[in-house]
UniProtKB/TrEMBL annotation:
Residues 381-579 form the 3'-5' exonuclease domain. The keyword Nuclease applies. It comes from the Eukaryota. InterPro entries: 3'-5'_exonuclease_dom, Exonuclease_MUT-7-like, Mut-7_DEDDy_dom, Mut7-C_RNAse_dom, RNaseH-like_sf, RNaseH_sf. The keyword Hydrolase applies. Keywords: Exonuclease, Hydrolase, Nuclease. This is Exonuclease mut-7 homolog isoform X2. Pfam families: DNA_pol_A_exo1, Mut7-C. Residues 1-33, 595-615, 751-785, 859-878 are annotated as: Disordered. GO terms for molecular function: exonuclease activity. CDD domains: mut-7_like_exo (cd06146).
């Protein structure tokens, strides 16, 4: 049992107390001789009967007339405490200190002759004391307030004898740091890797903390030889040179900078070394991996190098070690680096660049075909930076039952300090990505935006029906909370999540690098997961760009969107083929349920519907994500004109390549606008390799156009409702109509001197089947609602001219196709005109036929919209 343990204190032991409660109120003799008192304790000390020893010691202290003088007499008359081991004298001193703390009694006044005499004696004892006696003597005799001269002399003597630790400890106890030379006291301990003692020495002393950092930083300057310092202290026999390298010292400095909260400018050498390490990293990313854009590279390097001549020289050495003279010359030109020591080949290339006007970046290899391509059109990437933006898209962000991908971006930091605050939060939903400007939305000057945004994030994260996908999501949310106090509880609010990082760790992919394996230039992390699941890695050239910059560059916007949207595509692919990646049964079920395996929440409604609908389940038995007809976008080759008309008839956005147009144009359009490629024949294999997995389909040309359309809709799980039929012009693909009254139509036809024309395309009997499917708008038919798309009436102000009838956008109305007989129909009250091509439509019999033809794909869709309800707002079971 430790004699210093309060449990051994006789004052806490009822067995030692008398009836009055005073444990020392016993019949003991007074005026006891200190040495006899010490001898009386020796037997108990030798038997280590510590409890009884303490009781006897405390009774003896009470019997002493002057405990302080008695302690010094005891130490002066004894030799046992002068060794380095434990001693009875040192134990008695410690116990006396405790006894005095529990028994306040008058002491000599501060500065009185009596106290000064006691302090002088204590200092003499202290000069020969082992470390175990230092603390009690300093406390009992208040030596920190004593005459400093003998104390300082004693500390200097300890230092000269090579007892550096004892000197520092005593100086710390006596609070003599301001009177001692800091470098002399601390350097020997630093050489022995005893930084913790020096940290105690400077604790609560900001000036000494700065001097400690400055000393360590001076040892980090280029070319510094720490053995020069070691030679000043020959008593230091165990110099830890391996712990004194610039790299190790820099780590210590950075740690202390963070601990003390001091300005990094105090440590210019460490900062310079850190900048050099960052330059090596950036040059490797740019020149070797080629995974960093020139713009981002130049911006970061300029910030690191500045006007530091030494760093400029180091950068030039890094650049000239690279063999591509054109790239090196471009870097030198962009950064305005000194050119005196450039190799001749680089200098020649630099001169050529300077002669060129409007020089641009020396291009690296074309990376587009080698990386994951975002299957979302640019107009479906929304940058939200205000309360109005949030309000406009809140319903889409918080749609119950959906699956969302969540990611964060922040500006990379290569300088001293913690992780910078998050700059951008990406939320990807099916077909769209929302980029949330965190600094703007959470700015104190943002009006209602900060509170609205905090509520939105809280609702999104806490809704268990919304499956949140991430890659290391917990770390991202911790960073988000650390960056913005309003979101400090984001991680705790998370419900209904699936961390694909954990899925990645359990995946096994044949003939591909295992998750987490870092090749010299190979992808890693999320990029590796995307490559293993979707076939191509992420393009990370914008990863290290400046995410605090506003406005963000076009490349940054697309990169940020892809970083979040790829989570959705990976999730869908894993859901379709869990066995392909050797996922465990529990994990596969978690994927199908769209949640973490630890969660017990109800299955999201959208996935319930997908799993329950037979037409939406592919061969693997796992649901394919559903897409609305008007959100489904495709590009067809010129051989699929009939399929294009059929899909447009059902509201699908279809672009068709022109006759003779290169098939590669389809891949280009698909990547730029987020479209799916529909093709036939030999081009399929080439086009498939140019877009993301699952974004190209080979169409069976032996099928009729209507059958092809049904196959496409089933393959991509496209939901078609009656409201989608004829929501898009089959001639030009435009989805904007104007409603024209019969009277105005008569006037326009008459003004154009329009002769008698053909009958409605919906009543022709000579058309082939495909043409009949793309005729006029339908009249009311059994089992179908009246065709009434939401559009405004054509007004006089919309016409640029009445003869010929031309809209304000220059589109001429195709009035030649409106027969006089149709104008005389009493039941017909209005017409429709396409604002894109000017084609005129009217009520015919076509709606009933189209509905009947496509009844199979309409069966599981919601019923027709209510009268006057706009397309895209029809009731949904989701």
């Amino acid at each position: 049992m430790d004699p210093g343990d309060p449990a051994c204190d006789p004052a806490s032991d009822p067995a030692t107390r008398d009836p009055t409660g005073d444990p020392t109120a016993q019949s003991v003799p007074t005026g006891q001789d200190p040495l006899l008192f010490l001898q009386s304790l020796q037997t108990l000390w030798s038997t280590r009967e510590l409890r009884q020893l303490r009781e006897e010691a405390w009774r003896g202290f009470a019997a002493l007339d002057d405990p302080l003088t008695s302690l010094l007499d005891m130490l002066d008359g004894s030799q046992g405490w002068r060794g380095r081991g434990s001693s009875l004298e040192a134990w008695v001193a410690c116990e006396l200190k405790r006894w005095l703390q529990t028994r306040p009694r008058p002491r000599p006044a501060q500065g009185s002759p009596g106290l000064k005499q006691l302090q002088a004696r204590a200092v003499r004892v202290l000069a020969e004391s082992p470390p175990s006696l230092v603390e009690p003597l300093v406390s009992i005799f208040q030596l920190q307030d004593a005459d400093r001269s003998p104390l300082l002399a004693h500390i200097h003597r300890l230092h000269q004898e090579g007892r550096f630790k004892e000197a520092v400890v005593l100086g710390t106890k006596l609070q003599l740091q301001p009177d001692l030379d800091f470098e002399t006291m601390s350097a020997p301990l630093l050489l022995q890797d005893k930084v913790h003692l020096v940290e105690r020495y400077v604790d609560s002393l900001p000036d000494l903390q700065q001097r400690l950092l400055a000393l360590l930083d001076s040892w980090c300057q280029p070319g510094f030889d720490v053995t020069v310092v070691a030679r000043r202290y020959p008593q230091v026999t165990s110099v830890r040179l391996e712990r004194l390298s610039p790299r190790e010292l820099s780590r210590q400095v950075l740690r202390l900078l963070e601990r003390y909260g001091l300005d990094p400018a105090l440590c210019p050498n460490v900062v310079t070394q850190q900048h050099l390490a960052a330059l090596r990293y950036l040059c490797h990313k740019r020149l070797v991996e080629r995974s960093l854009s020139q713009e981002s590279w130049a911006e970061h390097v300029q910030g690191l190098v500045g006007q530091n001549q030494w760093l400029q020289e180091q950068l030039l050495q890094l650049l000239t070690a690279h063999n591509d003279a054109a790239v090196v010359a471009r870097c030198v030109l962009d950064l305005s680096l000194p050119t005196e020591q450039l190799p001749a080949t680089v200098a020649t290339e630099l001169s050529r660049l300077r002669l060129q006007e409007g020089t641009t970046e020396v291009p690296f290899e074309d990376r587009e075909d080698d990386h994951y391509q975002l299957p979302v059109a640019r107009e479906d990437i929304h940058f939200l930076a205000s309360w109005e933006d949030l309000a406009r898209h809140q319903e889409e962000l918080l749609q119950p039952g959906q699956v969302v991908g969540v990611d964060l971006e922040w500006r990379p930091s290569f300088c001293v300090g913690g992780r910078p605050r998050a700059s951008l939060m990406q939320v990807a939903v099916e077909g769209r990505v929302f980029l949330l400007d965190l600094p703007e939305l959470l700015s104190p000057a943002g009006g209602p935006a900060p509170r609205a945004f905090s509520r939105l994030v809280s609702r999104l994260l806490s809704d268990p029906s919304v499956t949140k996908l991430g890659y290391g999501m917990a770390g991202d949310l911790r960073s988000l909370g650390a960056s913005y106090p309003a979101l400090a509880h984001a991680e705790k609010q998370l419900r209904g999540s699936l961390d694909l990082l954990q899925v990645h760790k359990q995946m096994r992919v044949v003939d591909m690098p295992a998750p987490g394996v870092d090749g010299a230039r190979g992808p890693r992390g999320l990029s590796l997961l995307v490559q293993q699941v979707l076939g191509k890695p992420l393009d990370k050239t914008q990863q290290l760009s400046n995410w605090d910059r506003r406005p963000l560059g076009e490349g940054q916007l697309v990169y940020a969107a892809a970083d979040a949207y790829c989570l959705l595509e990976v999730y869908w692919a894993l859901c379709r083929e869990p066995a392909r990646f050797h996922l465990s049964g529990d994990l596969a079920r978690s994927l199908r349920l769209g949640r973490s395996g630890r969660s017990r929440m109800q299955e999201p409604p959208r996935l319930q519907k997908a799993l329950a609908s037979p037409r939406q389940v592919p061969a693997e038995g796992v649901a394919t994500p559903e897409v609305r007809a008007r959100a489904f976008r495709v590009v067809c080759d010129s051989m699929l004109q009939g399929l294009a008309r059929s899909l447009r008839c059902l509201g699908v956005d279809v672009l068709v390549l022109g006759a003779g147009e290169d098939h590669r144009r389809a891949a280009e359009v698909a990547r730029q606008e987020g479209r799916v490629i529909l093709t036939s024949g030999l081009p399929y294999q080439k086009l498939r390799a140019q877009v993301a997995a699952g974004r190209c389909l080979s169409v069976d040309c032996s099928l009729r156009a209507r059958q092809q359309a049904k196959a496409v809709l089933r393959h991509f799980n496209v939901r078609v409702t009656p409201a989608d039929i004829f929501s898009r012009c089959q001639a030009c693909n435009c989805d904007q109509y104007l409603k024209v009254s019969k009277d105005m139509m008569k006037q326009l036809v008459w003004l154009g001197s329009h002769p008698e024309g053909p009958s409605s395309t919906g009543d022709k009997t000579t058309q082939n089947e495909d043409e009949r499917e793309t005729g006029s708008a339908p009249e009311e038919a059994p089992g179908c609602g009246t065709y009434d798309p939401p559009c405004r009436w054509l007004e006089e102000a919309d016409l640029r001219s009445r003869a010929p009838a031309t809209l304000g956008n220059g589109t001429r109305l195709q009035l030649a196709g409106v027969p006089a007989g149709v104008l005389r129909r009493r039941a017909l009250r209005h017409f429709y005109c396409c604002t894109g091509c000017g084609k005129v439509f009217w009520e015919g019999s076509h709606l009933g036929r189209v509905t009947a033809h496509f009844q199979e794909v309409l069966e599981s869709a919601p019923s027709s919209r209510e009268p006057g309800q706009a397309p895209g707002q029809a009731g949904s079971s989701d």
